[in-house]
Amino acid sequence: MTYLVQFPKGYDEDTNRLWPMVVYLHGIGESGDEVEKVLRFGPPRLMEEGSNLPCIIVSPQLPKGHLWIRETSAVLGVMDEVIKSDRVDKLRVCATGNSLGAFGAIALAAQEPERFASLVPICGGVDYLESLRLRDVPIRAYHGEKDPIIPVEESRRLVRLVNGIGGKAQLITYPDLGHNCWDRAYNDPALWDWILAQKR
């Protein structure tokens, strides 16, 4: 699995500092074998445009015709490679993604919840068995209320299931947005403040 790693400003200046890591899973439109496609949206795009996000952004690329929910072990392998080679704070790892990638981020965190400090699915959803494994992973979900592709009820169900077993999940909805609510969500400083505040 190919992937892109982007480093925060100041990464090379303090060689003793550990940095939070955000694992971003893209939507279906960025699948393929050209890793530059992952720069179209989300955290990779913000970093490419010069945003000063104080974290390491890791963005795997899904091969065409594949699904993230079946590639979680490969993504965990990517994470292991980055943790081994770069200065990652393993207590501050966030899984996030939009659309197809949101389902993947949920499946990723549900597979090994002990590795994640937070989960940010944007227009995603969850099944009951996954929700049982997410009780100890703080979740901040986003969804457009006019989404015609993945209904907002999917995110409401996620929050309801996780909170129903004693978890910590919240949902931010956008009444005026459809499927692409990720541009607004990822550009919200409050989202990044929340991610950076989470620690296992």
What is shown here, in short?
By secondary structure, the protein is an alpha/beta fold.
Low-confidence stretches: none
Which superfamily, in CATH terms, is the homologous superfamily?
A: Alpha/Beta hydrolase fold, catalytic domain
Number of helices: 7
Strand order of the largest sheet: 1-3-2-4-5-6-7
Biggest sheet character: 7 strands, mixed
Task: Explain how this protein is built.
With 200 residues, the chain is of the alpha/beta class. It has one domain: 3-Layer(aba) Sandwich (Rossmann fold). The chain has helices at 42-48, 72-85, 100-111, 128-132, 152-164, 182-186, 189-197; strands spanning 3-6, 19-25, 56-60, 88-98, 118-122, 139-144, 169-174.
Topology:
Elements: E1 3-6, E2 19-25, H1 42-48, E3 56-60, H2 72-85, E4 88-98, H3 100-111, E5 118-122, H4 128-132, E6 139-144, H5 152-164, E7 169-174, H6 182-186, H7 189-197
Parallel strand pairs: 2-3, 2-4, 4-5, 5-6, 6-7
Antiparallel strand pairs: 1-3
Helix pairs in contact: 2-3
